[in-house]
Each structure stands twice: as C-alpha cells, then as structure tokens.
Amino acid sequence: MFEKAVINGKVYRNGRWEKTNLYIKKGKIDLISESCLEAKEYIDAKNYKVIPGLIDSHVHLHMGGGNSYSADDFYTGSVAAAYGGITTLIDFLDEVPTAGLIEEKYEKRRGEAKDAVIDYSFHPSVCGLSDDPEVIRETILKLGLPSMKVYTTYKESGIYSDDESIRKLVEVTTDGDVMLLSHSEKDDLLDTECKDIRCHSKNRPVASEVEQIRIIAQMIKETRGRGYIVHVSCGSSMKMLEEEYPELLKEHLFLESCPHYFLFDDSEYEKPTNIRYTMTPPLRTKEEQQILRDHIDMVDCISTDHCPFMLSRKQQPTLAGLPMGVGGVEQSFRQMYRLFGEKILPQYTILPAKIHGLYPDKGVIEEGFDADLVLFYESKVELPIQEHTACDYSIYEGMTSNISIDYVMSRGNLVIEKGVFHKQRGQFRTRKLLQGGIR
Q1: For strand 373-384 and strand 400-410, is the pairing parallel, antiparallel, or unpaired?
Q2: Given the DSSP bridges, would you call strands 227-229 and 179-183 parallel, antiparallel or unpaired?
Q3: pTM of the predicted model as reported, rounded to 2 decimal places
Q4: Which residues lie below 8 Å from residue 363, measured CB to CB, with a gap of 6+?
Q5: Host H or E run for residue 166
Q6: DSSP string for 377-436
Q7: I need a labelling partner for 109 at 20 to 30 A (CA). Which of 40, 59, 194, 259 fits?
Q8: CA-based radius of gyration for the chain
Q9: Quick check: 66 pLDDT over 80?
Q10: Per residue in 256-281, pLDDT tens?
Q11: What mean pLDDT do residues 412-439 have?
Q12: Which residues are CB-contacts of 14 (< 8 A; sequence separation ≥ 6)?
C-alpha cells in the first residue's frame, strides 16, 4: 500500500501537462500511473496543476552578526519559502580565504540551519585567496558542496577577490566537478561618493556589471572552466554574452536573475519609499528591464537573493551603512508566473536542480525522485498576497496574484495545506554536479 496519493491532477512532466496520479512511499515518488490504487492518504488534485517543488539556489538567511542579522533566520525564511512553493534552498557559507576555514564555517552554518522546515544546502564562499585552489576544490567536494562564490566588489568589507585570484579558482573548475559563482560588479567602475539613496543605481552603473561579466566569461572561455553569474540585473549583460560568448552559454557559463529586476525599475529610488528597494546590484532602467525580459530564455535560474532587513535597519538617511537586500521567497514564483506563465517553470525546477547538483533527486516529477510537489490553481480573480517572512515590510506589498499555491509537499510530507503550515524538518542535502551542459 502506498503512503500517499495525489490524484486527478494535471501533472507537469517533460515540459507538458499530463492527467495522471502520483503514488508516494518513503518520501519518494514510487509510481506514476493513471490507475486508481490503494493508499493510506489521498490528496484530490482536481482543478490543480501539479509541479515539482521549486528550488531557490540563492538566499541569505541569518546573515550578518551582532544586532545586524538579516530579518529571516532559517526557520522563518524557510516557512516563507514553503508558502511560495519552494522546497529546497541553497544558502551561503561566510567568505574565507582557506580550505580549513571553509570547514569551520560549514560546521557553524549547519548549526544555524537546523530549524529549516524544507531541504537546504550551501555554497562555500572564498575571499582573499591564500590557499592552494586545488585544496579548496578537494575540500568542497569532500563536503558535498561543489560550488564557490566570489565577490568582485565590497573591498571595504574585506570579501573582495581580485581577477588574479578568481582566475586561479576558475582553473580548478575545468573538470566540471566544481563551479565558480560570481557576484559580478567591476569595482573600479563604481562611484560611491554620492551617498544619496537616489544615486544608488548611478553609483553602480550598467557598465560595471557588463565589464566584469565579460572578464569572467573570457576566463571561462580560455580555461574551458565552469561558471555561474548570480543575480544578473542588466539586459545589456545578456546582449553582450549573446553576441560575444554564445558558445559558453548553457554549457560552461550559467546565468541567474531575480524577480525584482523584472518587476521593479530604478524609478523606485526617486520615491519616498526608496530605502525599501536597496539591494546590489541595484534596480535598472525600464529599458534595461525590457531587454532582460526579452532575454528570459537565456536565464537558467530564477533565484531571489532573499536577504531582507527590518525597516528600522533600513531607515537610514543615506547609503552609508545602509544594509543591502530585499525579500522575495514567498512571492517569487507567483509574480514571475504572472509575467511568463508556464515557460518559467524550468528556471525554478529542472534547471537549478541540474546546474547545482540536486538532480536526480529533485527538479522533476519522476519515479524515484523526492516527492517534492506543489499544487496550485489559476484564479479567475486577482488574489491578495500574504507574507510570512519575519521582516516587517515587503517590496511586494499591495500586489496581487493570479495563482493560489494551496499544497506544498517536501519529501512526501505536507508543509502547506490550504494556507495551514505543518511543521516539518528539512534535510541538509549534499550536491554533485552533472557533467556537461544543459542544452
């Protein structure tokens, strides 16, 4: 007998919808069949679309220190994510220069993440490289965390990596078993003299992103390494890569963007509420936003860079000391589905699963995969959105949604059931990158 059955739903498989039933045992999808079979518990998915649990491969929970932590810890952040249909998160380890410190930060982060209610993993982060890159590679592979993030800016914070260090890290990705993640803003093209919040997007111009991504792409081209650009904010970055490095895309170089770059533009910095929209990279012009929307097929992963701070922490008169980051895990899929419909599904499911090494456990609805499932319906009327984040404001306030996410299941366990949260315990997941690209 099966433990659970999800019946009568329209199930998203192989890029199309199928009317079929899903039978669950021991946290896995045990059988997919049109037959009606015996199970201990049934969920009638009539009128629902059934999709794989969503993956957000870029969040910052419990980030900071002292009295300056981001608003959501792993419990509140994962609850909010579950309400948004997300069943797996990938957070980050603190930035360090050596392999030994990576292991130390890993142990610390495991303790901080123990209350997550959905599955999670981590990206190690490297700065001020002072260790053999090959030793770092061996260490992150041993931990089952085959990715390493660098920042090409934030010199004042001590987490900056120069191009020489980044090149050394790219060189150890050539076997395809580890991947370099880059926050790409060319530091010497930034102009942060103006502290007025209205200057935020001008201080960090489009050229800073485009030029740094070009540098990373050239390194990958020369080494045949493997890279991933986080939170691409500019349509011009897409156009540059399309014109200059098309052969790398979806094979050696993967691209991530965030919902806020598709939904908001830099006119927000002229408004009295401008502090709420401060993140890096900043919001861009409507023209850049439209180019980004037009290149949605080049985006491999939609992640949120979820890192909200309480409004009291944001309530600063200038950019000096203003914490950067906004929330998004609960509204990400709702708003991007409104913009792009079902064509956005791969960027939340199979693509992040394959790119970040969560496949074949996650990312699709197939027998043998984790029973991470989301049931939603498309509403004929606009639905008010709710927020379950611990943060006291949201950039999505006042927006509505045309879908209702009613059931969210993690490894066969209901986390969300028609608006009701059922506490579960998430699992730490190791990852192993697939060889080759995703074309």
Answers
A1: antiparallel
A2: parallel
A3: 0.98
A4: 52, 55, 349, 350, 351, 352, 353, 354, 369
A5: helix 163-171
A6: EEEEEEEE----SSSS--TTTT-EEEEEEEEEEETTEEEEETTEE------B----PPSS
A7: 259
A8: 21
A9: no
A10: 999 999 999 999 999 999 999 999 99
A11: 95
A12: none
pLDDT tens per residue, range 193-217: 999 999 999 999 999 999 999 999 9
For the CA atoms of 43, 44, 49, 54, what is the dihedral angle to 10 degrees?
-10
Mean pLDDT of 225-250: 98
Shortest CA distance to 204 belongs to which of 227, 242, 180, 237?
237
- Which residues on neighbouring strands pair with residue 29, listed in sequence order? 24
Tens digits of residue pLDDT in 232-241: 999 999 999 9
Which neighbouring-strand residues pair with 326? none
User: What is the identity of the amino acid at 283?
Assistant: L
Q: pLDDT above 90 covers what percent of the chain? A: 96
Do 29 and 368 contact (CB within 8 A), yes or no? yes
Structure token pair of residue 6: 């999800």
Residues 156-175 pLDDT 10s: 889 999 999 999 999 999 99
Q: Tokens standing for 262?
A: 């598709």
